[in-house]
C-alpha cells in the first residue's frame, strides 16, 4: 500500500487516463508486473501459491498482467489477463472480463469479477500499489488465493459529507471452478455452486475503511499424489467476515486488517513512514485455527523505494513461526521457523 491518495493505482488501471497506450479515444491498454529474487532458510515450502524454500528463486513471485478497457458514455467493458505466481506463462488466468454500466449513483457489473473482500482486492497482483513486497499472507491467502468469481455486483455510491464517501456493493456468484495446489502432495478443486455477499467502503482524504461478508456453497475434490482423486465432498459451506482500515498521519501510514471464517482467523497490522522516495515499513501478522489457537505468525521489516513514478523496488526480510499448525508453511515443517529474504521489482505501464 502506497499513499492512500495513490493506492487506488490498481483501480486506476481501469481508467484510460492511466494507460500509456490509447488505442482509440475509447479503447486503452495497460499492464503491470512484478518479479523478484527470494530465498528462505527452511527446506519446507513456504507460502501457498509461491513455494519458497532454501534455494534461490527468481520466479516464485513473477506476475504479469494486461488489461484492455473500453468506454462509451456510461457503458464500459474491461478484460484483465494475469500470469499469477502459480501460473505457467502459457496458461495465464482470466482475472476479470465484465460489462459495466453507470446510472446515477449506481454502478452495475456482470461477468467475471474480482472478489471484493479486502483492502487490496481491487488491485491485487498490482505490486506497484503495495507498500510491502506482497500483501500479508495471513489475510490474503486465507481463502487459498481465490480472487475472482462469475456473477454480478451493484455498487451504490453516496457522499456522507464533503470529506467522506460511502460505497455499498452487494454481489452474487454462480458456478465457477478453481484449482489450488494445497501442499506438495495435494491438489484441491473447488466448484462453487453459489455465493453471495456484500462489501462496504468508507473513505476520506486520508483514510479508508473496508468491511465485507461472504457466504459460499461449494463442492471439494482432493487429488493426492500416489493415491489419485478422492470422492467429491459436496455442498460444503463457508462464511467469511473481514474488516480493514488504513490511515495517513502526515508522513506515517498505518493499516490493519482481519478476517474470520469457519476454518480460521487471521490479522495483520502495519506501519510505514515516507522519507522522500523511501518508505521503511514493519508488519506483524498472525493466524489462528478453528479453535482460536495461534497456528503461526510473522514479522516483516522492509523498505520500498520509488525508482520512478511507475517503478518501485522492495527489500524485505520476514521471520515466520509455526505454532499449533503449519502457519505460513505449505507442509508441516521439521523446523518450525524460517527467514525469507526478498528483493522485488514492480512496474506498471
TrEMBL record:
<feature type="domain" description="Porin">
    <location>
        <begin position="8"/>
        <end position="341"/>
    </location>
</feature>
<dbReference type="InterPro" id="IPR033900">
    <property type="entry name" value="Gram_neg_porin_domain"/>
</dbReference>
<dbReference type="InterPro" id="IPR023614">
    <property type="entry name" value="Porin_dom_sf"/>
</dbReference>
<dbReference type="GO" id="GO:0015288">
    <property type="term" value="F:porin activity"/>
</dbReference>
<feature type="signal peptide">
    <location>
        <begin position="1"/>
        <end position="19"/>
    </location>
</feature>
<dbReference type="Pfam" id="PF13609">
    <property type="entry name" value="Porin_4"/>
</dbReference>
<dbReference type="GO" id="GO:0016020">
    <property type="term" value="C:membrane"/>
</dbReference>
<protein>
    <submittedName>
        <fullName>Sulfate ABC transporter permease</fullName>
    </submittedName>
</protein>
<keyword id="KW-0732">Signal</keyword>
